[in-house]
């Protein structure tokens, strides 16, 4: 099998159920999700040792789920097959957010992206995830989409924020508070 097909040379690409222009909102949505998956792979690649092993395993599962998101977003005709992304996946993300958040120190101010290498890359994932979510919103104004994909991406960006802080905490690197931030977060109830 050759990698190149030449079928996209005139600016169109295949999706599940047909062909669309390469700058179509659908391609932007699943393409940004694919970009997110690449950055996530980079974040995973710097997680060595035992401190982040459980987190790394969760992130590797998320990589597969991001492929599911892309597959659902590439579905031009929803009647062709059932959606892959479900509400259960969103619920699991919420449980993981609560679990990882419980081990981080309270924050009361905005924090700056950064700290350890893993945390820095997870913050990149968070912002690319937000862009993927925005692309889904744009697409949903033009076509039917699996609404669970949009919910998943919304929750996933919160997950990335939480685990970026978890990575810093486990590696003994403090979060950097935004110096000009007033207190905007309530402390966690223990």
Describe the 3D structure.
One of its GO terms (molecular function) is corrinoid adenosyltransferase activity. The chain is elongated, with a radius of gyration of 18 Å. The longest helix is centred in the C-terminal third of the chain and has 24 residues. It is mainly alpha-helical and 190 residues long. It has a single domain, classed as Cobalamin adenosyltransferase-like (Hypothetical Protein Ta1238, Chain: A), CATH 1.20.1200.10. The protein is built from 5 helices and 4 strands. The chain has a two-stranded antiparallel ribbon. It has a two-stranded antiparallel ribbon with strand order 3-4.
Percent of residues in β-strands: 5-15%
Return the structural class. mainly alpha
Widest β-sheet, arrangement of strands: 1-2
User: According to CATH, what is the class?
Assistant: Mainly Alpha
SSE string: EEHHHEHHE
**What is the domain tally?**
1
Mean pLDDT: 94
Tell how many strands the DSSP assignment holds.
4
Measured between the Cα atoms of the first and last residue, the distance is 57 Å
Architecture (CATH level 2) name? Up-down Bundle
């Amino acid at each position: 099998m050759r990698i190149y097909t030449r079928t996209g040379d005139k600016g169109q690409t295949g999706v599940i159920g047909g062909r669309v222009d390469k700058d179509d909102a659908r391609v932007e949505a699943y393409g940004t999700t694919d970009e997110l998956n690449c950055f996530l792979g980079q974040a995973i690649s710097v997680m060595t040792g035992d401190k982040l092993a459980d987190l790394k395993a969760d992130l590797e599962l998320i990589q597969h789920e991001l492929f599911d998101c892309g597959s659902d977003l590439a579905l031009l005709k929803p009647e062709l097959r059932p959606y892959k992304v479900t509400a259960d996946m969103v619920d699991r993300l919420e449980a993981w957010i609560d679990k990882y958040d419980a081990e981080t120190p309270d924050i009361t101010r905005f924090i700056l992206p950064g700290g350890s290498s893993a945390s820095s890359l997870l913050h990149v994932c968070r912002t690319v995830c937000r862009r993927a979510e925005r692309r889904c919103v744009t697409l949903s104004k033009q076509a039917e989409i699996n609404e669970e994909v949009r919910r998943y991406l919304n929750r996933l960006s919160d997950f990335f924020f939480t685990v970026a802080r978890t990575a810093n905490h486990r590696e003994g690197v403090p979060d950097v508070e935004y110096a000009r931030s007033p207190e905007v977060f309530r402390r966690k109830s223990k």
